[in-house]
Design brief:
Layout: H1 2-39, E1 45-56, E2 60-71, H2 74-94, E3 102-115, E4 122-138, H3 140-153, E5 161-168, H4 173-197, E6 202-212, E7 218-219, H5 221-225, E8 245-257
Antiparallel strand pairs: 1-8, 2-4, 2-5, 3-4, 5-7, 6-8
Length: about 260
């Protein structure tokens, strides 16, 4: 008998609980969800693309050269190459190039082989030693004549190979903000015109993406011609024209419409 009463109370309690849940769903949860849905209106946006560009004069010159020495005595050609290279670097420094503007970039020692008549054996008959140096000269507005004099003097100093001089911008980020400002000004003006034409006004910025170019080193005519072994030495200044470079930045900006 007690068991039957317990079951009866359980089912009554369960019915009351379910009824409460249903009432809560219809009178509280559903209205709240409906209000949230009505408050979330579709957001209208507009996206525009624009480009900013600034033209700058290169302020950095770069070039490389190397010294090649051949001979049968390894110790002798090493000393000869080292002494020769030291004299060339000493001259470059005398023209005002600081230590941090001169960097050794290559040290290459290769043996020269000779084969016997039968081609079954080979033996070393000599060596070729090549040392390369990379030079950077800053502040071209003041030092262009310095670059010209150094390049014109290297062949006379016995340098075997000079690769082309290039002109570029040392710190493009310094000029990038100018291109960036122009790009965003254009983007804003374009978006405002489009919004006004459609009867709306601009709201907050929703998203932004950028794509910029880095200056590509410019190689002058002297650089394109290059210098190599066998060229007649000359201490006359090399004709150099750094030209100008364009730094550009493209932006895509999405605005909210109101």
């Amino acid at each position: 008998m007690e068991m039957d009463k317990s079951k009866k109370y359980f089912w009554v309690f369960l019915d009351i609980l379910l009824a409460g849940l249903v009432i809560n769903l219809f009178f509280f949860v559903m209205p709240t969800l409906d209000k949230i849905g009505n408050s979330q209106q579709a957001t209208r946006t507009i996206s525009v693309n624009a480009e900013g560009k600034t033209t700058v004069k290169p302020d950095l010159a770069q070039f490389s050269f190397s010294l090649l020495t051949e001979g049968a005595d390894l110790a002798k050609i090493s000393k000869e190459n080292n002494d020769h290279l030291s004299e060339v670097i000493k001259f470059i420094k005398s023209q005002g190039v600081p230590d941090n503007g001169i960097e050794t970039t290559q040290y290459n020692l290769q043996p020269k082989y000779q084969y016997d008549k039968n081609g079954s054996q080979s033996f070393i008959v000599g060596y070729t030693l090549t040392q390369g140096v990379f030079v950077k000269i800053k502040e071209l507005d003041k030092n262009l004549d310095q670059v010209s004099k150094i390049l014109g003097s290297l062949p006379e100093l016995g340098v075997n190979n000079i690769s082309g001089v290039s002109f570029t911008v040392e710190d493009p980020d310094k000029f990038m903000n100018d291109a960036r400002a122009k790009a965003y000004t254009k983007a804003r003006a374009q978006a405002e015109f489009m919004a006004k034409a459609s009867g709306a006004s601009l709201g907050r910025v929703v998203s932004v993406t950028e794509n910029s170019n880095r200056p590509i080193p410019y190689y002058g005519e002297f650089a394109k011609a290059g210098m190599s072994m066998g060229m007649a030495p000359s201490a006359s200044p090399a004709p150099l024209e750094p030209g100008t470079e364009d730094i550009t930045l493209q932006v895509n900006v999405t605005y909210e419409l109101r």
